[in-house]
Design a protein that fits this description.
By secondary structure, the protein is of the alpha+beta class. The chain is built from 7 helices and 8 strands. The strands form 2 sheets. It has a 4-stranded antiparallel sheet, covered by helices on one side. The protein has a 4-stranded antiparallel sheet with strand order 4-5-3-6, sandwiched between helices. Helix 4 packs antiparallel against helix 6.
């Protein structure tokens, strides 16, 4: 069935259902705004990230806004790891780094409980080292808390990134698989400690997610990292959430984790 015949068939069936009281077009509602920008040739470039940011801001109307006028349902963007950006950060700490052999974990840590915050860091580091990987260190993600709403600010997590070196002889696929195992072990260990305000947005050697409990147009204002020209990618997945069966929360902002294998066009 081609697109046009499918569309005609859908309209016919919808009309029949409406006649018998089984369907009402007025019951249809808009929901999340989601999309993807991709380079056909598979080559990372700044224009893809900028287009993804602009597209996200264009679907701001697909999310709701709280009474403070600034707290949204959540929005974010999923892109490739900008190795040049993080590589330079690591070199500034006096360490050497292989350009495409590092992973980044985007972490939401408990902000108001410093004991729990340190416990989370300890668990994260322990499980990474347990798998045999080296940790370059932690990076506190620059944010502008003044641009988000009071409600979002009150529940805002401590946002940090952990930078991880790949082991010698491990290819990307194996590295990514073991990062998944590490994440599951971290989550299990922290659940056992009954710490609720912890969430791993992404832990990957391929991609990274910047998201939060704000409106789509606040993404780059809150995360100035995304304005850096070194943030390049061959794709950008963007998402403006519309809360339906769950209340807005930092960890429920989207996109969710989904590690993507990219390839260049032949």
């Amino acid at each position: 069935m081609n697109m046009w015949s499918w569309d005609e068939d859908w309209n016919r069936r919808a009309s029949e259902l409406a006649q018998h009281g089984m369907y009402d077009p007025a019951s249809e509602h808009d929901a999340c705004g989601v999309g993807v920008i991709a380079a056909i040739d598979g080559k990372p470039r700044r224009s893809i990230v900028e287009a993804g940011i602009d597209a996200l801001k264009a679907v701001y109307h697909r999310g709701a806004v709280d009474a403070d006028g600034k707290t949204g349902d959540g929005a974010g963007i999923h892109i490739q790891i900008p190795y040049a950006f993080f590589g330079e950060h690591i070199r500034r700490t006096g360490q050497s780094v292989t350009a495409d052999k590092l992973a980044v974990g985007m972490m939401f840590l408990p902000k108001k409980n410093f004991g729990a915050q340190e416990s989370c860091r300890a668990v994260v580091e322990r499980e990474i080292v347990r798998m045999g990987y080296h940790i370059y260190g932690w990076r506190q993600v620059p944010v502008r808390a003044d641009v988000i709403g009071e409600i979002a600010s009150d529940s805002r997590p401590e946002i940090e990134q952990i930078l991880i070196s790949c082991r010698e002889g491990i290819d990307e696929s194996r590295f990514e698989l073991e990062l998944y195992v590490i994440r599951k072990r971290i989550e299990k260990a922290i659940r056992a400690q009954a710490i609720n305000d912890f969430y791993i947005c992404s832990l990957s050697c391929r991609s990274i997610i910047y998201k939060g409990l704000f409106k789509a147009e606040q993404l780059t204002a809150f995360y100035p990292d995304l304005l850096d020209k070194r943030f390049i990618s061959s794709y950008a997945i963007f998402h403006q959430r519309f809360s339906t069966n769950t209340a807005p929360a930092w960890h429920l902002a989207q996109p969710f984790r989904r590690n993507i294998k990219t390839c260049s066009a032949a």
